[in-house]
Design a protein that fits this description.
Rossmann fold; 4-stranded parallel β-sheet; 9-stranded antiparallel β-sheet; 362 residues; 11 helices; 27% helix; binds adenosine monophosphate; alpha+beta
């Protein structure tokens, strides 16, 4: 029997957000536009979302009393990052609804589980093998060949926890770099370019996907997302349909980012992120309803908004000292600036982004 669809949260209801980084900040801003309140729980003081949310709890994810008080004050819990400790989720889910749900977190927290899930859905990933020791790495290299990438199964982001292996002789150094963490060896995908789809699904099963954006990384960190992406009509349809398939399989509620490699043989899924995604920031100036509002609408049980692209956009991340260029960039009327209010501009730190409108949707 299918579960009844819950009633939409009323205006004035409170969304709880785990994590107060830039994604939490932009979620809180979107919630405020809809007349919804936000309570953010974040361990670090002075987090980017602190100055834009109604209520902030500064506490660790292992602080049981703080988690209980947080859950008691909100109508639904969502999150801005996928590596929330299981113990925190175990407690929270006894107290209030969490969207996206546990299954999406379980699948996306571990690259091995994630790839197996995607293959079981009939989607193509890079060839992969689990690696838990130097011997297993040798066996995996014999099976998959080089070049390959060794990645930690958990807690990797922005290219961290990854080592490229170009020849079998690199194996020992690569395994040492994992510091004993369980890993996965992935065959190197010879892709033309990378795209991502930001998809949303509501509790009633309604799905809405944004147009795929084309991503360029520098030093493992997203540099630009460009709309439209270079894709044939068939590839674009495939990208959107496979995203819908992932969302439905997880009975997902909220926004998800799906990263894809575009190869001559078709689309290969790199990874999924059960949250709003850096490669979806372009939607703030390319669509009427952006990914942040879409996520809030989904978790609040409101109807999904119109995600059609009205403008072609290039999103560029502002890292470290790049943020000092913001006043100059703001002189150009094509640029929309989004800064995260971070005090310290460390090298490589995401400080903001600029969405440059390059014309009406083509
Ligand atoms: P990830 O953290 O898995 O998203 O990897 C970060 C970036 O490394 C990707 O966006 C790709 O540019 C590159 N990369 C990761 N895995 C592979 C792979 N199996 N083959 C080729 N490039 C990859």
């Amino acid at each position: 029997m299918t579960e009844p669809v819950p009633a939409p949260l009323p205006v004035g209801a409170t969304i709880g957000i785990l994590g107060g980084g830039q994604l939490g900040r932009m979620l809180a801003l979107a919630a405020a536009r809809l007349g919804l309140r936000c309570h953010i729980l974040e361990p670090a003081p002075g987090a980017p979302a602190a100055e834009v949310c109604g209520t902030l709890t500064t506490a660790g994810y292992d602080d049981g009393p703080a988690l209980r008080a947080f859950a008691a004050s909100v109508d639904v819990v969502t999150y801005e990052f996928e590596n929330i400790p299981t113990t925190a989720l175990d407690l929270l889910e006894t107290l209030c609804p969490i969207h996206p749900g546990r299954e999406a977190l379980r699948v996306s927290q571990d690259r091995l589980t994630e790839k197996s899930f995607l293959n079981d859905l009939g989607l193509t990933t890079a060839p992969f093998a689990p690696v838990g020791s130097a011997d297993e790495l040798s066996a995996a290299l014999a099976q998959i060949g080089t070049p390959a990438i060794l990645k930690t199964r958990r807690f990797g982001y922005d290219g961290k926890g990854q080592v490229r292996i170009t020849a079998p002789e690199d194996a020992d150094a690569a395994w040492a770099a994992m510091n004993g963490a369980d890993a996965i060896l992935e065959g190197f995908v010879d892709f033309n370019h990378e795209v991502s789809v930001i998809g949303a699904r509501g509790p009633d099963g309604q799905v809405a996907c944004y147009d795929p954006g084309q991503n360029v990384h520098r030093d493992g960190i997203l540099h630009t997302t460009t709309l439209p992406a270079t894709l044939s009509h068939g590839q674009l349809t495939d990208a959107v349909l496979l995203t819908g398939r992932i969302l439905n399989a997880l009975d997902y509620v909220g926004v998800m980012g799906v990263e894809l490699f575009v190869t001559p043989g078709g689309l290969i899924v790199n990874e999924i992120a059960p949250r709003v995604h850096n490669s979806g920031h372009w939607t703030q100036n390319g669509c009427v309803i952006d990914q942040f509002e879409q996520h809030i609408r989904a978790v609040a049980g409101w109807p999904l908004g119109d995600g059609r692209r009205h403008s072609d956009v290039v999103m560029t991340n502002l890292l470290g000292d790049d943020v000092a260029q913001a006043p100059t960039l703001a002189r150009d009327p094509a640029n929309a600036i989004h800064l995260y209010g971070k005090a310290e501009a460390r090298a490589g730190r995401k400080m903001g982004h600029v969405n440059r409108r390059i014309g009406p949707a083509s």
